[in-house]
Amino acid sequence: MEAVAKLNNVPTSARKMRMVADLIRGQRVDRALNLLKFEPKEGAARLEKLLRSAVSNWIAKNEDERLEDADLMIKEIRVDGGRILKRLRPAPQGRAHRIRKRSNHVTLIVDSKKASTKVTAGKEEEVTNETAN
Q: Which of 33, 38, 68, 81 measures 20 to 30 Å from 97, CA to CA?
């Protein structure tokens, strides 16, 4: 069973956050946490906290399973653009330049590796049965 964690209105541009998210996409949770811990980029600390939240959400959903046996991995991580705060900065000769302060929304889905292999095995069996007929 998968668990979801969301982080809204992060005051960083989506492009900068995607660079960090691409590092951990599809990784196992323990490896992703190690990568984020030593990554110097600003978004790494926020993504590490979000990943820990997703793991704790998974634990709350699956109380009967042990975390060590689950072999959790990052199933999906999505970084979308958020709202843009528009500000004005003085410019020469009485003009003004527009400053856009961007933000983003991050959605992180964590799932057990065992659960995802069972689902794909079921789909493969369905496909082979259809081709046999």
A: 81
Q: Which two tokens stand for residue 118?
A: 């069972």
Q: Distance between CA atoms of 24 and 30, rounded to whole angstroms?
A: 10
What DSSP element (H or E) covers 119?
helix 113-132
CATH of 3-132, one of 3.90.470.10, 3.90.280.10, 3.40.1280.10, 3.40.50.1820: 3.90.470.10
Q: What's the predicted TM-score (pTM) here?
A: 0.80
Please list the ranges in the chain whose pLDDT falls under 70. Answer: 115-133
